[in-house]
Amino acid sequence: MDKIKILVVEDEIIIADNICSTLKNIGYTVLEPAINYSEAIQIIETQKPDLAILDIQLSGKKTGLELAKKIKEEYNFPFIFLTSNADVVTINEAKKLAPPAYLIKPFTKDELYASIEIVIHNYTENKDKANNEALIIKDSIFVKEKGALVKVILEDILYIKSSHIYIEIFLKSKQKYIVRFSLNEIIDKLPSSFIRIHRGFIINSMYLIQINNSSLKVGDEILPIGKTYKLNILNKISSI
Fold it and tell me: What pLDDT does 6 receive?
């Protein structure tokens, strides 16, 4: 389990440091801030943030608007616009990129926190499912835990079990999360390493150790194999 990782792109160093300090105090993981488009792209490609806070006006030839467009087209993670300009022209330009949130300087700690939590919660390609309690973004799933969204790396998941109208997510660290979701809903969003082995189970094949006639071993756990799923399991494993 990791904290949400945030990149701040702001060309005024003092402001950037203040934002980063506030974010750390709230409890997020904060990357070194970037001051321009090129620095931001380099950090995005190497550090893979979960969310970016972008000042619209940046040093250099390219603006935060151009950076936001690049993120939407190639990196597909959420961003928040940050600016001291609330004029009609700036807002209209920003609106074209459909930002999940827009903060006007100066802003409060509570406003920053609320914007981040709402953006992470609502960020899903399928807007019809924006209220699901489990959102998958890139290589992670965000689940609700004590009123907050917690980031779980997909590679850390051992298996997923159906439990009536909920699913139980079991991690290799022995942690477990319960979310209101179904196996049918989540299987289509997971990478190919996740395999449905039973009407009540999905496994991460990275941790598959042994297959028997009616069960398999994933990590230290023995799980049942459904008759209708066995052939699909063998076919998928041979293609991974």
Answer: 95
User: Residue 214 carries which side chain, given as an amino acid letter?
Assistant: S
β-strand pairing of 79-83 with 194-198: unpaired
Distance CA(108)–CA(106), nearest Å, equals: 7
Question: What are the DSSP calls for the chain, one per residue?
Answer: -BPPEEEEE-S-HHHHHHHHHHHHHHT-EEPPPBSSHHHHHHHHHHH--SEEEEESS-SSSS-HHHHHHHIIIII---EEEEES---HHHHHHHHTT--SEEEESS--HHHHHHHHHHHHHH--S-GGGTT-SEEEETTEEEEEETTEEEEEEGGGEEEEEEETTEEEEEETTS-EEEES--HHHHHTTS-TTEEEEETTEEEEGGGEEEE-SSEEEETTEEEE--GGGHHHHHHHHHH-
Q: Can you give the pTM of this predicted structure?
A: 0.54
Local confidence band at 42 (pLDDT 50, 70, 90 cut-offs): very high
Instruction: Retrieve residue 104's tokens.
Output: 């006007």
Complete domains list, the chain, with CATH = 5-122 (3.40.50.2300), 155-239 (2.40.50.1020)
